[in-house]
Each structure stands twice: as C-alpha cells, then as structure tokens.
Amino acid sequence: MANLAGKIALVTGASSGIGKETAIDLAKQGATVVCLSRDPERAAAEIRERSGSAKVETLAADLSTIAGGKAAAAAFLARFGQLHILVNNAGAAYGARELNADGVERTIALNHFGYFVLTTELLATLQASAPARIVSVASRGHKRAALDPDDLAMTKKWSQMLAYGNSKLCNVLFTRELTKRLTGTGVTATCLHPGVVATNIWSASGSIGGKLVAIFATPFMVTPIQGADTIIWLASSPEVEGESGGYYILRKLAPTSAAAKDDALSSRLWAVSEALVRK
Description:
43% of the residues lie in helices and 14% in strands. The protein has 279 residues and is of the alpha/beta class. The protein has a single domain (8-274), classed as 3-Layer(aba) Sandwich (Rossmann fold), CATH 3.40.50.720. The longest helix is centred in the middle third of the chain and has 23 residues, at 106-128.
C-alpha cells in the first residue's frame, strides 16, 4: 500500500461500482479523494466509513456534455489547487441511439468526451502538481470498434455494442495521444480493461440486450472490488511510477487492437475532439 498522504485524487463515477471501490482504497492510502458523479452523496458516507478517512469530498457534476465537463473542472479548481491522481471512470452503455447537446452519440459523449474534457481542462493543474497520474478505464470491447472520428454522431451504423466499443477505443486512443503530449512533464497516462464487472452499466442501459447481458453474464463477472484492483494499482503503486502509455489487464501490459495503435487515428480523434470542445 502506497502512502498517499498529501495527495489529491479525483475519481469520476465514484458513487457506485469500481469507481466507489477505487475511491475507498485511495482514501485508505491517505489521499484526499474527491468523488465526482451526478449524485456523489449517495455513497460518500459509505466511502468514509469503509476507508476510515474523513478526507472524502464530493463534487456533483454531469459529464455527458462538453459544458458539463467544463463546469466540473471549474468547480474542482475553485476548491482545490492541486491534483495528483485523476481516475476517469464514469461511463454508460445506452440502449438507443440518441445525440447529446453537442451532436455526439451519447455513449461516446459520456465515455470519451467525459474523459477528454475533464482531463484537458485539468491538465495544467496536473502538470503543476507533478508527479501526477491519469488513469482511464477502457475495455477489451475496444477491439470490436469501427470508429470514424469524423462521424461521432454514428449516423452510418449504430448498435449498443458498437457504440460502446467505439467509445472504449476512444479511451485507448486518447491515452495514446495524451502520452505523447505529456512527455517530459512528470504526468503519466495509462488505461486498462477492468474485467467484465458486475455493475449496473448494462442493466441500466434500457435495452433488451443490455438486460440479457446483466441477467445471464452476471454469474461469470468479477466483483467491483476485483475490477477496481488494476485501477488502484495504476493510480498509486510505486511499481508503475513513471510508466505511461500502456493498456493493462490484471496489472499486466496487454495487447490492443491494430486500430488502437494507429497514430493517425489517435491524432485525428484528438483534433476533432478539441475542435468540438473549443466551439
């Protein structure tokens, strides 16, 4: 267990599942943990009780739009002057194709832009706080993607699993591009597949397919504590101090899809995302 006393960690999607377990563990290790979600107070008392720490703060935010991500970053910066650990975890798999206020398919909007906006808005603070770490929860589902960065509304083809896979490929590509941009800053970026975790991400999706996944696959899924293990390790362990750019499964570097290694694709995704955020 690392000594995180004096460190500030921001965990998104911290009110349930692997986000909550990550927040609990980082608080146990001595960090001041800021729990960000739409309803962070829902789990705050449990996080404080199970971690034995009073240094658990909450931040209510909606990362499903660019404006919401910017507001979340501004609210964090108004209260905290440093940031040493950023865990991008909040996500969903929506059961119908809908666009958010920015014209982006909403699974991609939350799962990619939720990470992109919050991270880029806090990047200067992370660099000023270095050494610092950015850990993004991706998925093995990124291997089932067919991403077109110039069609983030997914007008050509949509399914729940394809939208989710595209959003998770975005997470891996985001980490790849971010790593290049952070070289020499003392800030690292990594991502991971947490396992197929027994959370409400599929049952809450609203689709029949998602509910079937929740019903029939749950007995074979890992627990939120197990799913959070690699997140916590990447966020805090001295073993990976200074390591950047990797995609991990069960604390080990793992292979990605060919698309996830495509530098032209990662660069294009960044450019399109940045242009939309700046509108």
